[in-house]
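Sharing a chain and its predicted structure for anyone who wants a worked example. Both blocks are below, sequence first, tokens second.
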Amino acid sequence: MKALQRYDDYLICSHTNPDADSIGAMLAMYGYLKQLGKHAEMAVTDPVPDLPLPNIGQMGPVSARKYDHVIVLDCEPKRTGAIHPIIEKAIVTFNVDHHKDNPGTCTYNYIDTEQAATCMILYRLFKNAGADFNLELAQPLYAGIVGDTGGFRHANTTTEVFLAAADLTAQGAVPHLTAEAIFATKPLQLIRFLGYALTRIETRHDNRLVWLALSDQDFKRFNVDPSHCDQFIDYVRMVAGSEIVILFREIAPDVVRIGFRSRGLNIHQLAIKFGGGGHLMAAGAQVDSPLADTVEQVVAAASKLLEGDQP
């Protein structure tokens, strides 16, 4: 954290299709740099979810100017999409992440794959640095932890996670508003689309393998943004007996985002096979191929993994 005090101007960024952890990490870092008297900008390449978080309105498209100092949060630089060329031109780069496949290519890297969320890492770093845990830090950090633990339901929910959440709540984070915004507030059109989507669930191996494939035409028919449907995988995962769960979203013609979840199997290797990455039991990938072909190939690989073979 001492290295952050050496410079006065920063770009803060994260991965495409930002989730609660990446957004929370960016906002918390922005708040911390303000405490240090630094200038910082937060850049995103996709729409930001409507979350009740301080400074979220400061997030926007990256400007055309040159940035000498860049902070990459919750991913490796290559996953930042259109921001990646800017990172490559920076003089000094910082990277804080908890994903298993991050190679640590920045000037300064803090990668802890044992942590439930990047916001957990920042919580510990800010604590050690003596930061003032005001609302600008507490609320986004809490939101990131809640998001990446699935509301404290996933296997990455530890005693340390609960202690951090309790401390952040004591510092001003509002649990019920955070949970409602992330999990319980959706537009009516999205709820109707969810009803349609759930009729499309398919299974194999006595429901041990479950998947849902949504096409570009599906999203257009219901006038729904594919980026708003990442939580659909949680509904698919509810199928009793499921061991591997997959969500396919065709975000543009022949461009498919894939989400993987498991209850114990290492599906990180499955994501790697298709150019992605993530965690042992929660991972993702994006491929440029027709939806039907992608589903066929990924389901075949997942079947092999269930049968004990290499995907």
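Comments welcome. The chain has two domains: 2-183, 188-306.
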